[in-house]
Amino acid sequence: MYALKQSEASLSVFEELESEVRSYIRSFPTVFTTAKNDTVWDKQGKKYIDFFSGAGALNYGHNNPRLKEKLLEYLASDGITHSLDMATAAKEEFLTKFNNVILKPLGLNYKVMFPGPTGTNAVESALKLARKVTGRNTVISFTNAFHGMTLGSLAITGNRFKRNGAGVPLHDSVVMPFDRYLGEGIDTSVILEKYLEDNGSGVSLPAAVIVETVQGEGGVNPASMQWLRKIERLCHRHGVLFIVDDIQVGCGRTGTFFSFEPAGIEPDIVCLSKSISGYGLPMALTLLHKDIDVWSPGEHNGTFRGHNPAFVTATAALTYWENGDFSKEVGKKAEKVKKFLASLVDEHPEFLAEARGRGLIQGIACSEEGAAEEVSKTAFKAGLLIETSGPNSEVLKLLPPLSISEEALNQGLDILARSIKAVKQSRLSVAARA
Length: 434
Ligand SMILES: Cc1ncc(COP(=O)(O)O)c(C=O)c1O
Hints:
Blueprint: H1 12-17, H2 24-27, E1 32-36, E2 39-42, E3 47-50, H3 53-56, H4 65-76, H5 89-106, E4 110-113, H6 119-134, E5 139-142, H7 151-154, H8 160-164, E6 173-176, H9 189-197, E7 208-211, E8 214-215, E9 221-222, H10 225-237, E10 241-245, E11 269-272, E12 285-289, H11 308-317, H12 325-347, E13 352-358, E14 361-366, H13 371-381, E15 384-385, E16 387-389, E17 395-398, H14 406-433
Parallel strand pairs: 3-15, 5-6, 5-7, 7-10, 10-11
Antiparallel strand pairs: 1-2, 2-3, 4-12, 8-9, 11-12, 13-14, 14-17, 16-17
Helix pairs in contact: 4-11, 5-11, 12-14, 13-14
Bound molecules: pyridoxal-5'-phosphate (PLP).
């Protein structure tokens, strides 16, 4: 019988009983047990610094004590857990706080819709609403976009492998080049402008344009503020709804609550999920301008739109946004990570192509095929969780909790630097032997 090493977990239950579709378990092959803020432990007691944060669902860290306290109190008091879209005290508190802490101070005049509790539910509801409001069917999205795995969201997602999984034609969508897709200095908003304005372009006037301000799954691609403003203006000029998918980079990831705040834009629809509950509990919101709230009652329903424990932790998470302290803290950490990654690229110019990102979503693009995945594996063995993104998994994506301690941030960056060096050296010695 194969004897397990002390540090090696058996995954046989998952291999035997869970579908082949499982994925993150393959990047991080161990059985996790407990977690606190920026650190996760497995069954063997091995500790990992978390630069993954549940793919952006844990911006406030694992088991955040401020949120946990409110959640435990709520559960102990037999507060309502499930409520469809009936009125509950927990939802009332969330809506009031969200309005007072986020919407009002920003002068945003949104109504809040609760779709099903995952990101793709928010996107589907946004697409449906845009089509209903405008009476048009096409939606324009961008190269390397990721909006989710249900059919409507897949139709506006770039990744070929994910799209192929649909098994049916994906339609009613048109793709345009994202900012920098055609290289530095080429303003791709001009292409969208031309297609919208030219009666011979073959592209019908769309219901909406949907954009991520920083593409997460697509390879950590930040759009410039100027480009975002141009896209918004173009939409408004043509009576097209402008949707921002802030599912991965909203809720403070870039340093402000909404990622689009520094651009000074006001999308017609905003999709939020992942870190909106703050605790990893499923929850999603679709924010829509009051004047496009044309839904009929029950026209977009779903059983799990009233997950009250998530409303409780979401309300507690909003306390981080009552003043500017948290945002400043994120800004400082982001600056540190940015400088560190730039120095890594300087140190390994032939191995690392580019460092890029905004706030605490940062990436390093590796030049060699398979290198980023190898670095991620090496880092995992050394006690760091870091995933890859991009169409060829060529980008190491750093997504630490916004609440990460300075010590854990330093440790994680150190493991990353050592892992990059180790993979580079092992590849060099293989090449030298060949
Ligand atoms: C920008 C963006 N939109 C939508 C989604 C889909 O969210 P979910 O996986 O919760 O359906 C994701 C998930 O990674 C995302 O990053």
